[in-house]
Amino acid sequence: MRLALATLLALSLPALADCPPGALGPARVQKLGTQGGVQVGLKTYPATVPLTDHEVILTFDDGPDPETTPAILDALKAQCVEATFFAIGKQADAYPDVLKREAAEGHNVAYHTYTHPQPTMRDLPAAYSRADILKGVIAVERAAYGLEGSPDDLSKIKLHAPFFRYTGFADTADLNGWFAANGIAVFGVDIWASDWMPMTADQELKLILARLEVRKRGMLLFHDNKPWTAEMMPRFLAELKARGYRVVHVEGGPGTGPLEPAPTGWRNETARSVEAIKWKAGTPPARSIFEVKPAPLE
């Protein structure tokens, strides 16, 4: 049933004529209706984007970076696959040409706030959070897609990739309602590489492949501002090819979903960590409170 649903909802595949011989290549495009409050990613939500066995979605946070993001784009282009980049607005303003390249090469350029508030937005005033997000959306749309002016509301912006990912996966009811009213899907993740922690490219490759082999499919999270991720990406994509995995590209559309419900026994894996790092409103720490730990090996 899952395969039939995916087939019916997939768009026509991108042309393969320009793909290098032996490349991983595009598998299919999955439409995701974003209207009415869509939340996906099993680490946080009880539903995700429908995928069949050995299908993955590639996502990246916290770019663009002038050195590491282009290296990742080179790796993706060499394998003829597309990804979704959740860009920080401040970085978009600093390096607009990198976002222009992402859009020109067929990737989604989506939203991840303007300033990446640390540790999360959970206990910030709602008005502050909305302003920061709106500024980030404007910066991304301007850099990637040529938006002119500074609209004062999400409803006045043509959203080319209507996807948002919270910093620290810490959503709020107010912001979720705001996104739902404006047709923006909230993205969590199914499998993460933990590359926010310092590690070697070899460690990261071993870690993400081990996690992927448990579930055999899923939406993956990397950070395109990390040098170990940029170094690892060509080998990771080659391993996907060797192990029979296929890359699915997600595109926003009308309607809601489709969604794949979480398996029996699902639990929210991010709630505990979000609560552990929350602060009292109006008293953010002077610096990040995240402790740098050794890279996990499994």
Summarize the SSE layout with pairings.
Layout: H1 2-9, E1 10-11, E2 26-34, E3 39-40, E4 47-48, E5 55-61, H2 68-79, E6 84-87, H3 89-94, H4 96-104, E7 108-111, H5 126-145, E8 163-164, H6 173-181, E9 185-187, E10 191-192, H7 201-215, E11 218-223, H8 227-242, E12 246-253, E13 256-257, E14 260-261, H9 271-276
Parallel strand pairs: 2-12, 3-9, 5-6, 5-11, 5-12, 6-7, 8-9, 10-11
Antiparallel strand pairs: 1-2, 2-13, 4-14
Structural overview:
With 298 residues, the protein is α/β, with parallel strands linked by helices. The protein is built from nine helices and 14 strands. Strands 1, 2, 5, 6, 7, 10, 11, 12 and 13 form a nine-stranded mixed β-sheet that branches. It is globular and about 50 Å long. The model is unreliable at 1-15 and 279-298 (pLDDT under 50).
Give a quick rundown of the structure.
With 298 residues, the protein is α/β, with parallel strands linked by helices. The protein has helices at residues 2-9, 68-79, 89-94, 96-104, 126-145, 173-181, 201-215, 227-242, 271-276, and strands at 10-11, 26-34, 39-40, 47-48, 55-61, 84-87, 108-111, 163-164, 185-187, 191-192, 218-223, 246-253, 256-257, 260-261.
- Measure the end-to-end span: 32 Å
Biggest sheet overview: 9 strands, mixed
Architecture in CATH? Answer: Alpha-Beta Barrel
Q: What is the 3D shape?
A: globular
Question: What is the averaged pLDDT score?
Answer: 89
Strand content: 15-25%
What is the C-alpha radius of gyration, as a whole number of Å?
18 Å
Q: Count up the helices.
A: 9
Number-wise, the strands total: 14
CATH superfamily: Glycoside hydrolase/deacetylase
Task: State the order of secondary-structure elements, H for helix, E for strand.
Answer: HEEEEEHEHHEHEHEEHEHEEEH
User: Would you tell me which CATH topology applies?
Assistant: TIM Barrel
When the domains are counted, the total is 1
Helix content bin: 25-40%
Poorly predicted residue ranges: 1-15, 279-298
Write down the CATH class.
Answer: Alpha Beta
Structural classification = alpha/beta
